[in-house]
Write a structure and sequence with these properties.
The protein is of the alpha+beta class and 238 residues long. Helices cover 18% and strands 26% of the residues.
């Protein structure tokens, strides 16, 4: 990877590597998890508002987490050298697995309030590899990033609007912050750091999923954030 990538990441808190996976690989990952979702409930499923039943598409397609604990293919994909080496170069250290996730984001579903991953995971540096399994654009709830927010440290949290976010917390966004939407094609990978503000809005389409395979990695040399309920999602409940 060229050194410009590392410079861009340090400056902006994110970096997109286009076409890191080919279309066949993406189709295999997507189909694998769609089949797995049909098998029924898995440990850690999270998403829909149970009271809303079929009216909330996330009840049928809750997010998977830590699939590597029961799925050998996830373990292969999370350790893919293309993801690991890019993450390692960007973060400037060896990396180890923190967690995996699979978001289905079906048509009509809510997004996730803007946040920093270090508001959930209290060790840093961490880095996410967000592998697009569908075309991602404004209509189906592409990723939103606040460039440069990686330099702000960990920020205060507040209750999110649950009509728009399937998670209950969000970052209190600094006034000067400017968010951008990241258009992506299947196989593109968005890398971002633990302080980078990110999230997504609703999938407004009636016919397009926005599926993504996500791996969070810990840097080999970790520090722990001080205890501070004002910057932690731990105390924000539904
Ligand atoms: O895909 C999204 O909408 C949000 C994902 C996210 O917050 C993450 O990967 O840390």
């Amino acid at each position: 990877m060229d050194s410009n990538a590392r410079m861009f990441f340090d400056e902006n808190g994110y970096y997109v590597k286009h076409s890191l996976f080919n279309r066949d690989e993406v189709a295999e990952i997507r189909d694998h998890f769609m089949e797995m979702r049909k098998e029924g409930e898995k440990p850690g499923d999270y998403g829909g508002d149970a009271k809303k039943g079929d009216a909330d598409p996330l009840n049928k397609f809750p997010r998977f987490i830590n699939m590597q604990k029961w799925d050998t293919k996830t373990d292969v994909w999370q350790s893919d050298p293309r993801l690991v080496s890019t993450a390692s170069t960007l973060v400037g250290d060896d990396v180890n697995l923190c967690q995996t996730m699979l978001y289905f984001k079906p048509p009509g579903s809510r997004g996730q309030g803007l946040h920093q991953d270090n508001q959930y995971i209290r060790q840093y540096p961490i880095i996410a590899a967000w592998l697009a399994l569908d075309r991602c654009d404004k209509a189906n709830g592409q990723m939103i990033i606040v460039p440069g927010s990686n330099k702000l440290g960990v920020l205060p949290v507040q209750q999110a609007d649950m009509a728009r976010s399937f998670t209950p917390g969000e970052t209190i966004i600094p006034e000067e912050a400017q968010e951008i939407g990241i258009d992506m094609e299947p196989g593109d990978v968005l890398f971002f750091g633990g302080f980078t503000i990110h999230g997504s809005y609703s999938n407004e389409t009636t016919d397009r999923f926005r599926r993504v395979f996500i791996v969070h990695y810990y840097a080999a040399h970790l520090e722990t954030l001080p205890e501070d309920p004002s910057t932690s999602m731990a105390g924000v409940s539904r």
